[in-house]
TrEMBL record, chains A, B, C:
Lineage of origin: Eukaryota, Viridiplantae, Streptophyta, Embryophyta, Tracheophyta
Chief site of localization: plastid
Function, as annotated: Catalyzes the condensation of carbamoyl phosphate and aspartate to form carbamoyl aspartate and inorganic phosphate, the committed step in the de novo pyrimidine nucleotide biosynthesis pathway.
PANTHER family noted in UniProt: ASPARTATE CARBAMOYLTRANSFERASE, ORNITHINE CARBAMOYLTRANSFERASE, MITOCHONDRIAL
Documented EC number(s): 2.1.3.2
Sorted UniProt keywords: Allosteric enzyme, Plastid, Pyrimidine biosynthesis, Transferase, Transit peptide
Name this polypeptide is given: aspartate carbamoyltransferase
Amino acid sequence: MSAASLLFSCSMHVGVSHPKLAAKSSACCLLNQPWNHLKSKTPFGHSGVLEKSKLSHRGDEILLRAGTLHVESAPSFTVGQKFQLDDVIEAQQFDRETLNAIFEVARSMESIERNSSGSQMLKGYLMATLFYEPSTRTRLSFESAMKRLGGDVLTTENAREFSSAAKGETLEDTIRTVEGYSDIIVMRHFESGAAIRAAVTASIPVINAGDGPGQHPTQALLDVYTIEREIGKLDGIRVGLVGDLANGRTVRSLAYLLAKYQDVKIYFVSPNVVKMKDDIKDYLTSKGVEWEESADLMEVASKCDVVYQTRIQKERFAEKIDLYEEARGKYIVNQDVLKVMQKHAVVMHPLPRLDEITVDVDSDPRAAYFRQAKNGLYIRMALLKHHLPNYTSLAFNSELLYDTNLYDPKYLDNNMWTKF
Amino acid sequence: MSAASLLFSCSMHVGVSHPKLAAKSSACCLLNQPWNHLKSKTPFGHSGVLEKSKLSHRGDEILLRAGTLHVESAPSFTVGQKFQLDDVIEAQQFDRETLNAIFEVARSMESIERNSSGSQMLKGYLMATLFYEPSTRTRLSFESAMKRLGGDVLTTENAREFSSAAKGETLEDTIRTVEGYSDIIVMRHFESGAAIRAAVTASIPVINAGDGPGQHPTQALLDVYTIEREIGKLDGIRVGLVGDLANGRTVRSLAYLLAKYQDVKIYFVSPNVVKMKDDIKDYLTSKGVEWEESADLMEVASKCDVVYQTRIQKERFAEKIDLYEEARGKYIVNQDVLKVMQKHAVVMHPLPRLDEITVDVDSDPRAAYFRQAKNGLYIRMALLKHHLPNYTSLAFNSELLYDTNLYDPKYLDNNMWTKF
Amino acid sequence: MSAASLLFSCSMHVGVSHPKLAAKSSACCLLNQPWNHLKSKTPFGHSGVLEKSKLSHRGDEILLRAGTLHVESAPSFTVGQKFQLDDVIEAQQFDRETLNAIFEVARSMESIERNSSGSQMLKGYLMATLFYEPSTRTRLSFESAMKRLGGDVLTTENAREFSSAAKGETLEDTIRTVEGYSDIIVMRHFESGAAIRAAVTASIPVINAGDGPGQHPTQALLDVYTIEREIGKLDGIRVGLVGDLANGRTVRSLAYLLAKYQDVKIYFVSPNVVKMKDDIKDYLTSKGVEWEESADLMEVASKCDVVYQTRIQKERFAEKIDLYEEARGKYIVNQDVLKVMQKHAVVMHPLPRLDEITVDVDSDPRAAYFRQAKNGLYIRMALLKHHLPNYTSLAFNSELLYDTNLYDPKYLDNNMWTKF
């Protein structure tokens, strides 16, 4: 069984294995301990995933049906179930097998996005984009992903208003309200740790779209996906991380994920004021990942498969503008760098970029950053497909889904789950 | 004929009974007199509803067809008609029979929302959310309601820009523009009376989602619906209204609606500075509703079926912070209150809450406030279903609706209405 | 072959004629020369249209298929192709034949919007509304147009954040990201020339929804469409342009378009401080269009088919408030003006209006400004229908479009294009 089919067998059989019997109260304890110590048997959970119980009336009802289903050995379609076991909180939660599974689905999403008049896979599902700080790029790519799969979106760009100083509602109360209106929450927050708080509270899946200086796991996933798509492998790759390595959460998350592959070598190239911090270096060492610091971008570029450039973030320098200006101009990816790079190598960047990559690099086939941005769409489509019920097998009978009689409670109470 | 079927027979036969012949000019007079003196025969109109004429070309065309239909005694499907007779402006417009009808539909919405991959009942309809002040909670629940029924939404969170000081467009002009782009308008405005002005202007239904210190009728509906859902009855209930009774429009609207039921008793529990005003007390007395004021939350809690807590609104106290702090701490629903409450009783709150209900109350089954928020979805689904044409009977032939030939003008001019 | 069928034959045979082989590099050169010197054979291109090459992997793939298609002489449906040749940048790009074709489609949109439960013509397509400055009216009408045709929308009301001073991303980089998430971009920008920059960059169609003091071509189209709808002709009409003729881009664009018709006469009626500029007068003269300036609104109104009133824009007067007040009160369309106007004549206004048209004019059948606003919907529906692939011919087999097997890569690589 391939990793991808394993991934989906998880969501297909969720009713049978009953992992949601895990008590909500135990999930709440997670806040006081490393939450990834919890183990589950779902692929997404190998390195730690929140298991959610459904204590609500609705949840019990689903459980009951799933149980009946089990006895009857009928196929466990999750139509109308509208919940899932997993949240996406931090890059470290994914193990190598899960990453492979996600990437396999992401690749299949490329053909759905490119060739169809729109998939109807997630028809009837609502995603709430709960953004406590603006991030149009991230929001658009999530919303595009949902809509490309036939789902719909509730948008809140100004979610801060929910918890305004004047009104003072807690994040937890907001989540309990929003989960009543949607099937999955994609949240961007200004505070580190907000995503896990939301996930513990919600009875629907939560995807972290960036929580302050904390994590931005879907960016990390799309970065690794892009490396695999562009270079064709992850084991044995050579990656140069360039620019602001102290403040950039993308390079930090990427380092965590690369450590899951074998024979990886990472080069750190950054101005002195924004060097990679020791925690990442120690982590890489502990995982047996070779790394070195270098001040010579040209030499690193000539050796690497990937030159991962980042923006020097002016806002981190406050009034020390002279330090910023010095750091900013130090490592620029331009035609000279392209000249020493290998033919198969690529330039990546999380965007937006200023002048740390010159515009004349854009037309070189090795400029991968816009393809990288596009890969964010595929990764998010794959995550949404996994985290919401899987209609694929029903697609041939899709008109049946709109036969309202099927949703009449008296039909549902009897044999809906065995009808197909 | 049950109240609910009566409710829908109204929208089914609208073309036949021609209520839209009522002149627009008479509707305009409403601004100078109590508009709920107007009577109509639709269930929503028993206690006063705006009747709209369709003076436009489009309206005339529809009339013509409906007339033909009448002669032929064909079923009066309202496909493509895209208008309705009613607006939702204030809580008082609903009589008891109408409330029952709405609640019956709302209950049916619970199973649609829970069990299906999305209803297509309102497919092809567009709701404009015209919000002149932000209210993410209300907006999201309306938009979720529309999308759960297969409809779509045009969102304007910053509708004030329409009428900016620089440009100075009137509300009426804005409505005349927006009605051209949508099928129903859900409006939030900062001025009392804005909703009725919009309703008089628009040739499509208008739902008031709060107009300044005025009305917020859908909140009142969901409150009464929640009481019936939680307690199982409305006649004979005992309700304690707690907190800011002077400024809270929710408790005021709720008092109006409770007066429509028999043998109701209301307790007012509030700090002295924010006591219930005399107009409501007089109204209740005039309707024969028993009420009393009390300073003893524990005693009231022990007697009531519903403890309806509200937030003390800091913004009403301006610089009198000491008065605010005193009022705020006075009546808190906590474990002590839960202990004296009856087993079947519930705690409600319109949300957001600060600390007027302690967080440890949340896990008690009698904490109904998040279920109450969810009920807002069902009530709004029911209102949208009523106020937009009813496709249910066509659901089995839904694929015919997408046969473009049917929409070719030459077909439409002949016999579209009798085709089904 | 009628103009309209010619219009669509263009999009039908796009794969066969391979205009997208034109090099992207040549398109880039356009920035340094009048871009409308480029000629193409598509109807939209008679007076200058950008031809786009698809240098991406996706583009090549499409080319390949289109080529195969050509050889097999199979019908060239553009299902799933999701690209188009044309952008809408400025009013002058449209010739008379193209205008007629657009208007014919717009008229057909009136019946789709009025009579159906929503067309599914653009199902599966995503429009991004990239608004760098707010314009709720324009945004809503574009979004309504897209949704009325079954498409969906990604909304960015605060696109400026993309290019914030802190981050400093170029418009070009933003476009390259957004084009990965959507099928067409509708852009409003504060800088003149932004639309053409976006169009040159994007591999998907771009529609200019206003770029600073530059162009607002869809407003010009809807104005001319309204004149034809209301008066029944364009050749031989008499139009009075009233109000702020110096700053109003709508009257300037309208003058450009009217010059394409025969025997047109234009009257300019404006306060001295905001008179029509010489460039337009010279242009009209060069095209043989008769025009005259007049200070007598009553006389002009009595002669004209169309009195096109505009708002005096306070923001253009800065601190010269006295000049503004004088200009503002000078020419008001009121009952007196109506009395001298001919029975068939109409009053138009791009909206919003202040008091330059008195409210008592609204009820006169000759008040066309709200119908004009509504026509914006039909024009935008027509443009979207043209600029996104045309599904009409497949509508009868629409259920096949949702047969997921068709989108399985192995089917797509073989014979998808000949399947229908």
